[in-house]
Write a structure and sequence with these properties.
By secondary structure, the protein is an alpha+beta fold. It contains two helices and six strands; from the N terminus they run αββαββββ. It has a six-stranded antiparallel β-sheet with strand order 1-2-4-5-6-3.
Amino acid sequence: MRDILKIFNTEHHTKEQWFEHYTAFRAGTALEPHDVRLEDIDADHIELRMTIGDHARQPYGLLHGGMSLMLAESAASIHACWDVDLSRRVPVGIEINGSHLRSATDGEVRMIARVIRRSRTLIHHRFELIHTDTGKLLCTGRVTNMYRRVEK
């Protein structure tokens, strides 16, 4: 288990705790090289931001659809950790679907994931990817995570 997960070994987390440890949490993950930033988090939602650059474009210069879904799964998976003792169980993505509605070539995007339903074994999020410069919705969909017991 990554050492950072040991910080979240209780079933109560705070927004301040997440902001304090987010840089360490994203280290060594897909979030780090894409400079995905945590903007807000609470029991009901999470907001991440990323600047569109060459790292996130497909060959035609547009934001890569895979980046949109990486942001969606990352947001939902991070948020699924909220108030979960990560020394006992961790969320793993089991389903994602997304609809790409518009494209963008530059600027910044904001990923917002909100809880639809949370149960003992599953958590479902609805997500929206918004181009911050225009306010237009680029992508929307759902992510489901299953809670898996940590093998000791």
